[in-house]
Known about the structure:
Blueprint: H1 2-22, H2 26-51, H3 56-61, H4 63-79
Helix pairs in contact: 1-2, 2-4
Amino acid sequence: MVRARGYATGVGFVAAGVAILTGVQARLDAILVTAMLASFALLVHEPMLLADHSIHMNWTENRGIRVSTRNTASRFRVMTR
């Protein structure tokens, strides 16, 4: 099951890349890739923070979600121009 999700993610990225390069539904693909990257950031970093918010390491590790979100937003802005 995990392997299937990995393959599906890879196929999604390749399909979005081809669509963006060819210009076919490029804006929609940029939006979907942005949503996928943002969901990855939330799925990776939020459970640690919600599990035990009193541990300092969880808050410093959560910095990654801000960096990831900022990078995702800038990619989206560049792609949709």
